[in-house]
Task: inverse folding
């Protein structure tokens, strides 16, 4: 474990667990009252996306500029919480099990053997099948979180509050419910003496533009891919009628996406045969329901206001992390190759993790335990669009589901400006954020920080005016009806961004 001052004079660290895996994390004290501030773990999704995306592009204490300098982020989330960013699972970012000198192929993610004279770096040898499901990744992340907590008094004796929040994004719609439920189960066993470890006070779960549910018979996000192409905030017809109807048909037709998802749900996913059923369902649903837009839409995956080759958010931090000065300061021994590992993603695809379990049930358990759950969606994102997120929020059958569905949409106001619409009942809220793509804190940094502050502080999301009571129900309108003007495409560029 190493204490360093990188990124606006905050603390960066890396550690190894008992299995000699090198797992990278970066910890930042809260900018004020760190001793009493809670601990929040931020995870990006992918699967295989590095949480350093969130650190540098979204909500960390600094951003990286084009000339590879750091710039303080005044809206960083460590304004209100101690923040931990973790590169997981093994093979993502600077986290690795084994390494070798070689020549890296950025297109395939593969590494060719090379002599020391011809190699262009030292790289992780990633086993894509070691952590190839969300549940396996949850166990690995818990181990690292416990190792961090054990060493926290040495790393930073100032931080003593063990109030814990998990906030995540994108494929974090899978990670969030499974990880939080797994962490809660382990935490309960620590508290009753069944296992050893450092207990936490589990507090909030936040999911931004999450792909949460791919398989429940009640609702699924997948049908909202074609619907979003016709009924988005900006009045943009993203594909023509023929492609739209093809996407819809691919979902509903006999033997199509829906039927394959149900077959996955009925299969034994502990077996190779069961995982194959789910992998085939994933490939069909993504290939024929989600992805025709990528081929024919011409607009951004993560922001429909932008072209398909979207230059935002910029990825300057990748080059920054490959500078010798930064790597020496962090104590890392491998090159930083990608912000999202294709190999790790391949492993998850092989098991059909995208559809093979519903996270609805996990969220229902978490909500019934009294945990504050906050879903938030930028309304310009296609891949995890807000229409699908709203459908998931309405599909949950927890104790207060009827009251949540009866709650109305209130304006989300920050310093007198309306940034979105929120429905809230007690400990559960769904926020749609205006003029924001996939990475909401990048597009709306001020509003995102205030949202985070209100949720952690147990305040009404709409205006933060008072504490949330168990029976609080947001007033307003029955539907989120806000629209924005049509956005023409800007001139084409050759730079593209990656998943979060």
Result:
């Amino acid at each position: 474990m190493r204490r360093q001052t990188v990124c606006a004079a905050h603390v960066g660290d890396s550690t190894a667990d008992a299995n000699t895996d090198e797992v990278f994390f970066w910890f930042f004290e809260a900018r004020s009252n760190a001793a009493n501030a809670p601990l929040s773990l931020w995870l990006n999704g992918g699967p295989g996306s590095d949480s350093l995306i969130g650190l540098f592009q979204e909500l960390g204490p600094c951003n990286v500029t084009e000339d590879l300098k750091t710039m303080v982020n005044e809206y960083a989330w460590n304004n209100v919480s101690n923040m931990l960013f973790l590169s997981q699972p093994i093979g993502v970012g600077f986290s690795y099990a084994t390494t070798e000198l070689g020549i890296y192929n950025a297109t395939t993610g593969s590494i060719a053997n090379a002599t020391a004279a011809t190699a262009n770096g030292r790289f992780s040898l990633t086993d894509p099948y070691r952590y190839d499901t969300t549940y396996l990744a949850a166990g690995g992340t818990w181990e690292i979180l416990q190792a961090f907590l054990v060493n926290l008094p040495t790393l930073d004796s100032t931080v003593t509050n063990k109030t814990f929040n998990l906030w995540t994004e994108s494929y974090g719609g899978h990670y969030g419910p499974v990880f939080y439920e797994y962490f809660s189960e382990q935490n309960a066993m620590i508290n009753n003496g069944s296992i050893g470890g450092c207990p936490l006070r589990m507090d909030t779960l936040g999911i931004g533009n999450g792909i949460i549910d791919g398989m429940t018979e009640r609702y699924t996000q997948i049908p909202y891919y074609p619907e979003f192409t016709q009924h988005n905030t900006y009045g943009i017809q993203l594909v023509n009628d023929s492609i739209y109807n093809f996407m819809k048909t691919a979902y509903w037709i006999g033997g199509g996406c829906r039927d394959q998802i149900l077959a996955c749900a009925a299969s034994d996913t502990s077996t190779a045969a069961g995982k194959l059923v789910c992998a085939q369902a994933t490939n069909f649903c993504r290939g024929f329901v989600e992805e025709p837009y990528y081929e024919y839409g011409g607009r951004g995956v993560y922001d429909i206001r932008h072209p398909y080759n979207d230059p935002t958010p910029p990825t300057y931090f990748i080059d920054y992390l490959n500078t010798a000065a930064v790597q020496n300061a962090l104590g890392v021994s491998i090159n930083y190759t990608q912000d999202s590992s294709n190999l790790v993603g391949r492993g998850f695809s092989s098991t059909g993790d995208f559809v093979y379990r519903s996270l609805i049930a996990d969220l229902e358990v978490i909500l019934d335990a009294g945990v504050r759950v906050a879903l938030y969606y930028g309304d310009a994102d296609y891949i995890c669009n807000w229409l699908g997120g709203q459908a998931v929020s309405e599909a949950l059958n927890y104790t207060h589901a009827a009251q949540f569905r009866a709650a109305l949409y209130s304006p989300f106001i920050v310093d007198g400006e309306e940034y979105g619409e929120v429905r809230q009942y007690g400990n559960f809220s769904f926020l749609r954020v205006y003029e924001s793509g996939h990475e909401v804190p990048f597009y709306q940094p001020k509003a995102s920080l205030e949202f985070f502050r209100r949720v952690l502080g147990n305040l009404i999301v709409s205006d933060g005016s008072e504490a949330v009571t168990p029976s609080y129900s947001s007033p307003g309108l029955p539907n989120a009806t806000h629209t924005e003007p049509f956005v023409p495409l800007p001139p084409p560029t050759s730079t593209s961004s990656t998943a979060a």
About this structure: Residues 4-212+313-456 form a domain with the Rossmann fold fold (CATH 3.40.50.1820). The chain has two domains: 4-212+313-456, 239-296.
